Predict the 3D structure of the following.
Amino acid sequence: MESNKKSCEWCSGPLPPNRKKFCNRQCYANGRTRTLGKCEYCGDPLSRSRKKFCNKNCYVQSSMVALVCGTCRVSFKRKKSAVKGAKVSFCGSACYEKYERGSQHSCYQKDAITNPCKQCGSNVRSTKLSRVKLFCNMKCWRIHQKKNPTSGFSFCRKCGAEFKRLHSRHAFCSMECYRVFSVKENAHGWNGGVFDATNAGRFLYGDGRKAACGQVSYVREHRHIVETILGCTIPSSTRVWHIDRDLWNNSPSNLYLFLNQSEFSSALHGDLPHHSNLPEIAQLISTGFDILDSISQFSKIQKKDETDG
């Protein structure tokens, strides 16, 4: 037992005192390359570090399958994964194009559409599975584009200027024409110029009134009613108060006009008005007062009456 433990694993000779498995370097090299089987492709013995194939070339060749080209009938090899499920295989793109243009293609036998090329007049085959081809190749298409520079051009729906289309739905020459055209009935989501906001009341399309961005803006319906009654535009610093606190009740008798936010806040902490002040302000404006002066004058008269009362 003791002699077997101290023998070389390769030559079975006695081991030197400083060796554990092999008696020398040659036995060590032979033991590391011990054959464990045969290569699945070439049949050569495998080394200890290989499992199925002796080298990378055998591994690549084993994944190839022998095929016959559907056009030129030449034998060639291709990876199994590349031809999985294919009924006909080709050795190159030239044979594939030749086969596709030929009569042996099943799609051309059933759904073939033949029309002349717009440039050279040669027959161009198309199928119902794809778009109808107008040119036989890219060379004819480029020549046709040079001879017909208006191809791909259109006219602006707003100003009528000719421009080059970037896509089939391109209808305006610039964003400015699009913004000017897309108003009122031409705008997306146009609902007669009226829309209702849940917590802000009703808005009306303000003809002629523009926002800071330069576009025509919407105005609140109650402010529009006040401007109609007074016959002038009220400044943005003024506040319109709904007496019954119902944002949807825009009756003139339910609207009260405050000079500014400060006056409105003071009224909230004091006595709120119970009737509209629009008739009195309109009468003051008719006598020559400005809109802001009219509101201030009405407030002074009202405070004086309360003091005298």
